[in-house]
């Protein structure tokens, strides 16, 4: 450590060093924090100099510099976290878990959930939302995957971090779903369906089957080192241990009856030379109760983990062929399932060939419940002839929390390095390494050790290294030249690197897994259609718009109402969902609310193509609309009042603490209700006014809603942020704000004459719900 010794009577300060013995070694490397003062005056009193010296000893300038920069970068990180990751409202990360719930904790194994699929065959499976099944009791129009999440159990009083490995058992017209659930308290896997099976060891992969009128379950219990078979005493929740089938830690095992014999498939990852998640063995028997004999070709597989050797669900038969489900663990554990057609299965031979499943993976990334991986499939045929399947999925890869911790720590370490570099360039930090080196040992030296210490070759290398290291700060300062314009630019760039590193670290530590998840209602999820209206001059807006919003979790389809010019092809747009371009004959704002029988969802989000918002805000608005489907639910409030009526901006509504309209440039509506009202005979005069002014279509819809009900007809949701991209171009529809407001004020007067007043209505902002009350 460098100690500054102040000069007296104007003499220059000299630096002295204090020797410390660390690990009993005299070789020391340190950073000396310099503080130079060239302006001492002769009339300073000695006690002032002593006070200065004491202060420099207690609070070295280098320490203050280092601490100051860390505080500055920390402040940048806090502002970044507040802007990007703070939620000014209460939300649950999964299916409505309350703040006091122990469930749905971040888990290194993942955040698995379960979805349902239907199809005419096992190779044409579509998610449940494609079936367009509506359920009023859970406000799901339509019901969407996932159907079982960690919160489904946690809300029911069974704390769970994730649910996975689903199996169906069909009993008449009733389907029973068994799955693994990881207990949030014990971190142990249990078998879920209530809790069907709870042992003192980890359980998963609950393979359920029938044999001679008895129902059996063979879960994975590799942690105990055994493969156990349980029999149902009182199906589905009461089970007893029937038999230990194998004294081996087999994982993801199943039993099938094929060609008159029973076959047991499983993987043992504990053997010497076994490739984890790339091994498969087979045994055969005349009964599922055993005894089991090994297949002649065991191990069937001992290959790379991406091949699909490890089982990934129940095998199935289709068109007289047997198919095995395997899981690809190449990129991450459980990346995807693979389907293998079994061509030969005998006691002495086994052959299979991979076939395509026909499953379309989501392109929504972490915003999709299965965007990162899906590793288990159970598909069975119903009595109707159709096929049903359950599949698990996860939005993040395995080990994501650890990965983010490592990257976050590295980012914060980079900030520290940047501060040191800035200190060197400012001349405040000077790294010093003594040129003399001599090791001190607590034991007596022998001749060999003394000879090694005196070795000219070794000592010269040390001196050379120390000399070069000492020259680094001076060399860096000489090249950067902090006092010049170029040097200041270098300092600014380095500072920016530190700020970026701090924000990156905050993102990995505080920003979670990056997913903008949907908000469930009554434990269920749903979807909506996104509709925007545009024309050829705004094509660049549309491309950015589609790319962003198609990745939002609950968006089912995007409809582009094309009012003018040559429309693009759907393939020209980078979309994760289907895009339908509806070309209109007339350039009219009324087209926004045109009846469209091809819309498959009850909810439509009317969203202008020049408004950019976070998917999280869109999802939150959708959740609010599901609670109030009879209202216009949106993000831009207005208050129409005064005599005469005058149209004003959002600031006016906030100043008067209320609103009575929601602009449909960003609003959810029930399209069947809204479009029917808009195109009714009663609204004809209003539509003519919209065409005359080329404005006010959203004001008209608010009047039509208010005219149809005496209760609240609009609901405001405050977004975390919203960006109007038209401000950066010359293609904004309403470029002149004063003229735009004047036209809308005229619309208010005319609509009030036709449909009755709206000024008497006012709904207060729910500050507590939106979380913006200061």
TrEMBL record:
Q: Name one GO cellular component term.
A: membrane
- Major localization listed first in the record, in broad terms: membrane
Q: Where is the chain membrane-spanning?
A: 63-83, 405-429, 489-510
**Membrane topology summary:** Multi-pass membrane protein
- Pfam families in the record, alphabetically? GINT1_N, Glyco_transf_64
Q: What is this protein called?
A: Glucosamine inositolphosphorylceramide transferase 1
Q: Which UniProt keywords apply?
A: Disulfide bond, Manganese, Membrane, Metal-binding, Transferase, Transmembrane, Transmembrane helix
- What GO terms are given for molecular function? glycosyltransferase activity; metal ion binding
Q: Which InterPro entries match?
A: Exostosin, GINT1_N, Glyco_hydro_beta-prop_sf, GT64_dom, Nucleotide-diphossugar_trans
Species of the source:
Salix koriyanagi
Q: Which family does it belong to?
A: Belongs to the glycosyltransferase 64 family.
- Give compartment(s): Membrane
Look up the record and name the cofactor or cofactors this protein needs.
Mn(2+)
User: Which pathway does this polypeptide act in?
Assistant: Sphingolipid metabolism; Lipid metabolism
- Identify the residues that the record assigns to the Glycosyl transferase domain, covering every copy: 528-757
Where does the Glucosamine inositolphosphorylceramide transferase 1 N-terminal domain start and stop, copy by copy? 104-394
